[in-house]
Structures are given as structure tokens and as C-alpha cells.
Amino acid sequence: MLGRRHKFQTEWSSVMRCVAVFVGINHASAKINFDNNIQLSLTLAALSIGLWWLFDRSSVGLLLGVIIAALATFVTQILVSQGVFWYSKPDFFYIKSWVPCIFFSGGVTMGTIGRALATGDADAEYQGEIKEHME
After folding, report:
1. Dihedral through CA 19, CA 114, CA 44, CA 83, nearest 10?
2. Where, by residue number, does the polypeptide cross the bilayer (predicted)?
3. pTM
4. Tell me: the pLDDT tens digits for 3-21?
5. Which structural domain, as residue segments, surrounds residue 24?
6. Which residues contact 56 (CB under 8 A, 6 or more apart)?
7. Cα-based angle 64, 70, 71 (whole degrees, multiple of 5)
8. Neighbouring residues of 87: CB distance < 8 A, sequence distance ≥ 6
9. In-domain check, residue 91
10. How many Å apart are CA 13 and CA 16, to the nearest integer?
């Protein structure tokens, strides 16, 4: 099932649902109170994997999300250690432990948007080829 294309991959309504779920995950990271950050991190990790499963399901999307999460977390740690900005009560090398989950779900969301834009362009080219052949 990892290599299969998702059946709603090119529909803009699916892309907008993906964006809404990403906004919900981001909002949950700021507004939901948990007893400790481990519970919050595990919940956000499960939601992020769920986002990937619902809207992407590709091995490339999973790999892209993991790479973006790792690189963006590393850059964030560097920026925080240099004093560019800071987190109140960091718990994971200068940052909050849930930050990689947000970057992962953001990478999946941007991949979904990019795929829909690329597919839309391909569909427009295909429609243009059909018109040329009909004339």
C-alpha cells in the first residue's frame, strides 16, 4: 500500500482538508494542555503519521517528511542556541520535543499542495494536446 497513489491525490478538496488538518495539529501543539511534553509529543507524532496516511501514503512523502523534520529541527536548534529566538521551558536540546512533528506534518502538507499544483499543470497540458488533435 505504500507505493500506491492515493485516490484523492489530485482533488483540491482533499488538499484543503490536508491543510485544515495541518492547521489543527499546529493549533493543538499550542492550545492543548498535557501533563507532560512526552504525551504531547506522542499525540502529535500519531496525528502527523495519520496526516501522512490519510493524504499521502507514498514512501517518497514519508521520506520527505522525515528529512524536512530532521533538517528543520537542526536549523531551529542552531538558531535558538545563537539567541535568534527561544522557547520558554525547552525540553529537547534548546527546543520543545514536539517541534519535529510540526515540521513533518508541514512537509507532508507542502508535498500534497505541490503534487496537486503539478498535476493541475499536467492536466492543463493534456487538455491542450486533446484540443490540438481535435482540430
Report:
1. -110
2. 38-55, 62-85, 97-118
3. 0.79
4. 455 555 557 888 899 999 9
5. 12-134
6. 6, 62, 108, 111, 112
7. 90
8. 80, 94, 95, 96
9. yes
10. 5
In angstroms, the CA 89 to CA 117 distance is 39
- Domain count across the chain: 1
More confident residue, 115 or 105: 105
Count of beta carbons in the 10 Å neighbourhood of residue 132: 8
| Structural domain contains residue 6 | no
